[in-house]
Amino acid sequence: MRYITKSDLILVARNSGYLMIGIGIMCIIPLIFDLIYFEFDVISFVIPAAISIGLGYGFLKYFEETTKIMRLKHGMMISAFAWLWASIIGGTVFMLATHIPFIDGMFESMSALTGTGITMFQDVEILPHSILFFRALEQWIGGLGVVVMVIGVLTKPGSVSSKLYHSEARNERIKPSIKATLEKTLQIYLIYTVFGMILYLLAGMPVFDALCNTFSIISTGGMSIKNANMGFYHDNAIYLISIVLMILGATSFLVHYNVIKSKGKSLINDLQFKIIITVIAVVTLMLYLVSNIVPIELLFTVVSAITTTGANVASPLTMSGWPSFVIICLMCLMLTGGSNGSTVGAIKLVRMITFFKGIYRHIREILSPEGRVVPVKLNGHTIPEKSISQAGNFITLYMMIIMFTWAAFCLFGYDPFKSLFAAMSLQGNNGLELGIINNTINPFLKLISLFDMWTGRLEIYPVLITLRAGFEIFKR
Fold first, then answer.
1. How many angstroms separate the CA atoms of 200 and 202, rounded?
2. pLDDT at 274 > cutoff 60
3. Burial 342-376 (b: 16+ CB within 10 A, else e)
4. Could you give the CA distance from residue 349 to residue 277 in angstroms, rounded to a whole number?
C-alpha cells in the first residue's frame, strides 16, 4: 500500500518554500556585523541566502496550491526537511567563510540549530564576528524551533500552522489559536533575551559577548564565542546569570505566560519546574559531598546538564578527570532533560513521569483485585493510555539510537565510557563533552552525529516518517 502520493509531495514541497525563504533570510542577518566590523565577507552569506530564497520562491511558484488537507505526516516531513535544509545552507556559509570541509560546516550548523553546541572549530576566537554571531543566531532560532519561528512570522493562521507547530513536538497552547500562541511565545522569548543581555552587560560583559552569550544560553544551546566557553570570564556573577537563564530556557513557555496572571503561582505550582529545582539542589549537594569539585563549577555543570544547554565552566579535559560517579550522575541528568514546551532536548520530564507512572500503574493493577482499572493521573488530569504507550515507545527508540551511536564510537577505538557520554550528549542535544568529538573524528562518525542531533531535536518520529516516505518514493 502506498502512503505517499504525488499530491502529498506537492503539498510538502510548496509549504517547504516558506521555510526555505525564512532560512535564506536568516543567512542575511549576520551581514550587519560583517559591515560593522569591516570584515567584507558578503559573498559567504549572500550565495547560500540566494540559493535558499530562490529555491523557496521557485517551490511556491512551481507547485500550485492543492485542495489536499494538511495532515500531521505532511507537517512532520516539512519539519524534518526544514531542519536538514537549514543545516545544509548554514553549513555552506561556514564552508565559504572559514574554508572548512562541507561536512564539518554542516555539523557546525546542525549543532548550533539543534542546541547541541559541540563545535568543529579548534579555535573559535579567531573566527570573524559575523560567523560568531551567525552561530549564536542559529542557536537562538533553533531554541524556539526553525519551523515554529518561520511560521510565526511568514504564514497565516489555519490548519497549516497547526500541523507544522505539532510537527516539532509542541502541544501546549498559550492562546486559542496556534498563530496567536506562536506570537506570544516569541514575545516571551524576546523579553527574556533582552533581560539576559542587560544582566550580562551589568556584570561587565562586552556588548558583542553579551548578545551572543544571551542567544546561546537562553536557547539552551551552549555554543560559546570563547574557547573556554563561559569559563573564559572567571566571574561568579556571570555564572549565576547564566544559571538563571538556563533554568528559564528549560521552563515551559506556558508557565512563563501564566506567571504574571497567577502572580507567580504557575511557576511554584508547576510540577516540572519543582522537579528541576529539586533535582539541581539535591544532585549538586550530593556530588559536592563526594568530590572535590569547586561548588560553582559543579552547580553550573549540573544545571547545564539537566537543561541540555551544554555550556561549561570546567573544560572537557578537566571534566574527564572527575570521579566516575559524578559523570554517571551527569549522564542521567542529560538523559532526562527539562520541561516539555521549552527549548530543551533529551527525553523531557513529562515523558519520564508518564513512563514511570505507567510502570507503577502496572504494579498496582497486579496487586489489585481482578478486573480493577487503575487510572494514571498527572496534575489532577487522567493520562490517556495512548500517551503512556507513546512515552514508552519513544524512550525505547531513544535508547536504541544511543546504543547504536555508542557502539559506533567504540568501533573506532574510543574509550567506552567517554563514548557513551558523547552518544547521550549528541542524542539529547546537550553538548557537554569529555574531549572526543572534534574535527578529527572519522567522517562516518560525523554523519552518525548529524543524524543523532537531527533526530534528537525533532524527537525521532518526523525523521523516521520522512525516511520512510523517501524509501517509498525511490522504491517506485
1. 5
2. yes
3. bbbbbbbbbbbbbbebbeebeeeeeeeeeeeeeeb
4. 12
Query: Over 60: is that where the pLDDT of 155 sits?
Result: no
- The residue-averaged pLDDT of 8-21 equals 88
Give 124's DSSP letter. Answer: G
Q: Is 417 helix (H, G, I), strand (E, B) or coil?
A: helix
The grid coordinates listed for 263 are: 502572580
Report the pLDDT value the prediction gives residue 147, as an integer from 0 to 100.
Answer: 66
Sole residue written with cell 561548588: 295
45: Cβ contacts below 8 Å, ≥ 6 apart = 27, 28, 30, 31, 34, 93, 97, 130, 134
| 393 SS3 class | helix
What is the pLDDT confidence band of residue 44, given thresholds at 50, 70 and 90?
Answer: very high
- 353 with 280: CB under 8 angstroms? no
Radius of gyration (C-alpha) of the chain in whole angstroms:
22
Q: Which amino acid is at 320?
A: S
Q: Are 242 and 217 in contact (CB under 8 A)?
A: yes
How far is Cα 228 from Cα 348, in angstroms, rounded to an integer? Answer: 28
Report the distance separating Cα 63 and Cα 55, nearest Å.
Answer: 12
Q: Report whether 419 contacts 410 (CB < 8 A).
A: yes
Alpha carbon separation from 294 to 41, 235, 324, 329 (Å, rounded): 42, 13, 16, 17
395-416 per-residue burial string, b: 16 or more CB within 10 A, e: under 16: beebeebbeebbebbeeeebee
Rounded distance between C-alpha atoms, residue 82 and residue 167, angstroms: 11
The secondary structure of residue 374, as a DSSP letter, is -
pTM, two decimals, is 0.93
Please say whether the beta carbons of 60 and 14 come within 8 A: yes
d(CA 218, CA 279): 20
Q: Is the distance from CB of 129 to CB of 37 less than 8 angstroms?
A: yes
**Arithmetic mean of pLDDT, 196-215:** 97
Cα within 13 Å of Cα(39), Cβ side: 22
Average pLDDT of the segment spanning 44-56: 96
Helix (H) or strand (E) holding 377: strand 377-378
CA distance 1 to 67: 22
Residues 216 and 223: beta-carbon distance below 8 Å? yes
